[in-house]
């Protein structure tokens, strides 16, 4: 029997998620949106079924607004919620998206209580915390997608700056999904060569700043709405590692219970994603400067989480 992937939210990211999940044959796909947008969700699903002969994939893809249709899902990816408009911070979305996540959590808890849940909705670190609290799911079953994207952006910018293949750039970005996130140049390599040997401090600082502001750079270009291709791929990478037990080490927002000195918050840290879900958090020995930067981003996340009152 095929695996089942439920996509809660069939907007910009949701539709790309559906396409990627189909192309990768991760399983059957259900796109769930609000009742007013049930028909567009059905239309997107049908369009993707009609793409299958050229896309060369087998998957049943359906659209719905009824949570009963996500029953038995192995993976739930949540993008339900408003995206930023130009001039907005992610925190500006808190009230409206908390309301949406509350409804989504109830639906997922009732109909897909065993699924690995990947949250994408912003403000990410607070929304994944809220979803975890509202569902009461075990911590290994709830992952926030942010560091996977932030690290992809960092790797892309490093490759663009140095004119090298992005496949050879390895690195990681820690912390919350906001302008205080912590790229780690010290641990970034290009084909095994340390980035710090290949680029000047000025170049590296510029790359780190661009990474921290990458989402905003795209929001400014769009004027309305935020990035969708790269966030979708980043969530699919997590889902695939779970479904295929690939045991990839990916930067994700995971519940820290003492790791990195953080207690009771979801923060972007390197985790192993296996068939057990978020199996393990890896702790990096940070320098004092890196620790201070991480503490700053944790403070920002803590403040937003407190505003959820959960
Ligand atoms: P958009 O294209 O507006 O799609 C959101 C969809 O959610 C719409 O189709 C809505 O109708 C739907 N929706 C709203 N309420 C509900 C509900 N109760 N149940 C089901 N569906 C609902 O936005 P998008 O796809 O561009 O972005 C989705 C979210 O992802 C936003 O909150 C963004 O800020 C966030 N985002 C996060 C990242 C990260 O890296 C974490 C990156 C980019 C976007």
Helix share bin: 40-55%
Shape: globular
The parts where pLDDT drops under 50 for at least 5 residues are none
Q: Report Rg.
A: 19 Å
Annotated CATH architecture of the largest domain: Alpha-Beta Complex
Structural class: alpha/beta
Mean pLDDT: 97
Main pleated-sheet profile: 6 strands, parallel
Oligomer: single chain
Distance between the termini: 38 Å
Number of beta strands = 14
Describe the overall structure:
Helices cover 44% and strands 20% of the residues. The termini are far apart. It is globular, with a radius of gyration of 19 Å. Helix 1 (12-23) links the parallel strand 1 and strand 2 (28-32). Helix 1 packs parallel to helix 2 (38-55), helix 1 (12-23) packs across helix 9 and helix 4 crosses helix 10 (288-308). The mean pLDDT is 97. A 6-stranded parallel beta sheet has the order 3-2-1-4-5-6. It has a 3-stranded antiparallel beta sheet with strand order 7-10-11. The protein folds into 2 domains: 4-146, NAD(P)-binding Rossmann-like Domain (Rossmann fold, 3-Layer(aba) Sandwich), CATH 3.40.50.720; 147-306, Lactate dehydrogenase/glycoside hydrolase, family 4, C-terminal (L-2-Hydroxyisocaproate Dehydrogenase, Chain A, domain 2). The protein is α/β, with parallel strands linked by helices and 310 residues long. The protein is built from 10 helices and 14 strands. It has helices spanning 12-23, 38-55, 94-111, 124-135, 147-162, 195-198, 201-212, 214-222, 229-243, 288-308, and strands spanning 4-8, 28-32, 61-64, 75-78, 116-119, 142-144, 169-170, 173-174, 182-183, 189-190, 193-194, 248-257, 263-274, 277-281. Bound molecules: 3-acetylpyridine adenine dinucleotide. The site of 3-acetylpyridine adenine dinucleotide has 35 residues, from helix 1 and helix 3.
């Amino acid at each position: 029997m095929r695996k089942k992937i439920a996509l809660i939210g069939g907007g910009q990211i949701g539709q790309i998620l559906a396409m990627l999940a189909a192309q990768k044959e991760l399983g059957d796909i259900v796109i769930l949106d609000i009742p007013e947008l049930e028909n567009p969700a059905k239309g997107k699903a049908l369009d993707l079924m009609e793409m299958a002969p050229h896309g060369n994939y087998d998957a049943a893809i359906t659209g719905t607004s009824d949570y009963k249709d996500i029953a038995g899902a192995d993976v739930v990816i949540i993008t339900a919620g408003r995206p930023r408009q130009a001039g907005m911070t992610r925190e500006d979305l808190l009230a409206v998206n908390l309301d949406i996540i509350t409804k989504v959590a109830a639906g997922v808890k009732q109909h897909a209580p065993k699924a690995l849940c990947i949250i994408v909705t912003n403000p990410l670190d607070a929304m994944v915390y809220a979803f975890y609290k509202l569902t009461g799911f075990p911590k290994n079953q709830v992952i926030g997608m942010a560091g996977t994207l932030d690290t992809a952006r960092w790797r892309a910018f490093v490759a663009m700056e140095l004119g090298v293949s992005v496949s050879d750039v390895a690195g990681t970005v820690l912390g919350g999904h906001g302008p205080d996130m912590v790229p780690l140049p010290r641990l970034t390599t290009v084909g095994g060569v340390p980035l710090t040997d290949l680029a000047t401090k000025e170049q590296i600082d510029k790359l780190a700043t661009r990474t921290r502001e990458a989402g905003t750079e795209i929001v400014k270009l769009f004027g309305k709405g935020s990035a969708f291709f790269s966030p979708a791929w980043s969530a699919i990478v997590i889902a695939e590692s779970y479904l295929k037990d690939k045991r990839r080490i990916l930067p994700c927002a995971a519940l820290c219970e003492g790791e990195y000195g953080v207690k009771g918050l979801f923060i972007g840290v390197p985790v192993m994603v296996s068939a057990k879900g978020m199996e393990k958090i890896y702790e990096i020995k940070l320098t004092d400067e890196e620790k201070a930067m991480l503490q700053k981003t944790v403070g920002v996340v803590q403040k937003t989480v407190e505003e959820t009152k959960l």
